[in-house]
Fold:
Amino acid sequence: MATIAVSGQSRLHRLREHLDVGSGIMPYFLVAPALLLVAVVAIYPIIDAIRLSFLENPLVPTGSNFVGLNNYVQAFRDPVFLGSIGATIIFSIISVTLELVVGFGIALLINKTFPGRGLVRAAILIPWAFPTVVSAQIWNLMYNTNTGIITYILQGLHVLAPGDSLLRTNAGIMTAMVLTDVWKTAPFMALLILAGLQVIPNELYEAASVDGSTRFQQFWTITLPMLKNALLIALLFRTLDAVRIFDLAYVLAGRQLPTIAMYSYQRMFAGTTSDFPVGIATAIVLFVLGILISALFVSQMRGIVRQE
Structure:
């Protein structure tokens, strides 16, 4: 009987070890509902979209034939889609670069101690708080040919001809999209960079000042190295957001200068049924592009962690 009791206690002890919150299987039970929700809401639609991109036309009963990469080939043979890739890349590079510069400058300014700093920080975030469609419509009115203030100023400076506007040409549309996007999202970049600035110890700057370092030397040898992770995170978020830009392009550009997301939308919901599988294929291309960008930034962040 004693042996049986000892054996039972031993099994009970092993069960408790397996269910231990710190190192057992209990954490997996606790996160299982969240993982199941993510699988249903995110993973399954992605997998199903990839499956549909290999079918002839899933909208018709006879369109479930497997056609391999045919939809992707059709997309890359379309000059409009190739143009949307170029427009998306150009917009992403220019807008994210300007947002980094402007956001860095704003973060450095509001990191200083001055009267009303809290109010200034809150006011700076107002453009970012607006929905993108609302911001785009506001700026669209300012780009208006007859009543737009920006058009009036540019015409007064003879940058635009009388009766002309930025939204008449592809270059002008790109400029308008970049200006609007920088105005809206540079505060978000500033917020992320400010969070990184506030964790840098002031003692480092004090020691550098004692050693006779200039402000630029302190910025180059202390601020930038300490902000690498914060900058990479900010760039990751903004690059992914810029690559998938849709609402801003929908309001300002429409069909004249589509981005990848706009092209995908037009093929899936504004075209014929035969355009639908090509639209899905282009959406998967955008998804893969996002994965590649994420992998690039994550690898850079891991390299910084290893160096530290």
Q: What stands out?
A: The chain has a mean pLDDT of 83. The two ends are 58 Å apart (CA to CA). Residues 62 and 72 are 20 Å apart (CA to CA).
